[in-house]
């Protein structure tokens, strides 16, 4: 899945607005401990508040334990939501992790 296939939603342009992206988990083992750790670590590099939403469950993207509670299997759709001054950069970086399968071959 490439960037053009991802749905990109922008709710305004101010730092207080929520920006979001749709991604799909493509790792064979889903969003297991290693990619969840990478995702949380990357999210912590941004000042913005970042949430992951899957099947009406919303969690803090900066918490590995929260991410693991999603139990996101391969093929799961996840919405990444960010609000803050670096929200767009955060979405770009986190989306890229999903597109590259967090560096995993499968």
Description:
By secondary structure, this protein is an alpha+beta fold. It has a single domain, classed as HPr-like (Histidine-containing Protein, Chain: A, 2-Layer Sandwich). It is 27% helix and 25% strand. It is built from three helices and five strands, in the order E-E-H-E-E-H-E-H. The protein has helices spanning 33-43, 64-68, 87-99, and strands at residues 8-10, 18-24, 49-54, 57-60, 77-83. It has a five-stranded antiparallel β-sheet. A hairpin with a 7-residue loop joins strand 1 and strand 2 (18-24). The radius of gyration is 13 Å and the shape is globular. The chain starts with 7 loop residues before the first strand and ends in a 7-residue tail after the last helix. The relative contact order is 0.27. Residues 1-13 have low confidence and may be disordered.
